[in-house]
Amino acid sequence: MKKLISIFFILVFSSSIYAGWSTSERKNCKWWNKKYHATARVFTGLFASQTTGNCGYAYAEKIKNCAWQKASRGDNGVWAQGGVNKRICSRGEVITLFDEFFLPQTDEAEETIEESEIKAAPSIFDEDSHAVAIPNINGKIRLKKNNGFYSDLRFSIWKPTDDNVNFIEDETMDDSEILHQITVKVTDNGLIFKGELVTEEIKSKFEVVNTGDEIYVVITGLTLKFPVDQSISLDEVSVQIEGDGAPDTKANAAKMSANTDLAVAKNEYQFNVYPNPTSDFITIDFSNNLSEGNTNIQIYNFSGKKVKDVYNGQVNRGNSKSLKIDLSSLPKGEYFILIDSNGKRLSKKIIKD
Question: Could you give all domains of the chain from N- to C-terminal order, each with its CATH number?
């Protein structure tokens, strides 16, 4: 029930849901414990989800050119899933307002930042070795560079905990339920592998081509085998493959700071913060020399949590706003001042000593 309430609030009240996909496969097919489950989340907050009750096929439809997801055993026994993503409808999960500030600016509505399609043979639940295998994984991931995004691909073995409560299927994988997980992150600089079961043989199945403009990854003939503790029945285990594409906050923060400095140098804006570093107070001087409209100034820590609302109101064109801010109650560390002035986003990093 708690998970259902959380999902409801996310869908109703969040405007920062970006397209993502996931597919779950189970050993047994019961009406409350389905064999396949496919989901797709999209930029608009709409949620596409389908669960099959006959162990055969599930498909979460493509919505507004943002994402599609499918899982099918099919005539040849192969199931597949994938995500197709347009512009900033790149695959991802619910992100914070802090991440939203750092989304890349794209002029072409149909620009594809990252996309992927992954296929695999049906998962094997091997009682003899008490392990679960995802065999014959093949596919591709393409990431357009210099947009401040990364692409995640996660292979997880998990034990749902709500299946025996009123016959409710547990479709949300919590961290505490994960038995094993292998994550492959595609970045502008290549691949980052994470997980205690990652081996050099697994890494060798990923071929990376860096064209200068794109990172293109081809996965060929990969089989993943996950041991399961003998105390856990394989009937209780689920396989999940999912993909995200989310903003690389550090990369976008650096890009936004550089763009801010350029705008100030061209006298489009005044944006001064002093003293920096500081132990208690800072002063922010700001003016918008291009236009006038609503200006919102906030301070975030580097993990994306808003720590202070500074100002929300009108700033007339060419008029300077000077604000003295008390930071003495904040812990030492790095913070960002984020300004949204009539649609233009600016950022400066500050250090609290």
Answer: 2-247 (no CATH), 252-352 (2.60.40.2550)
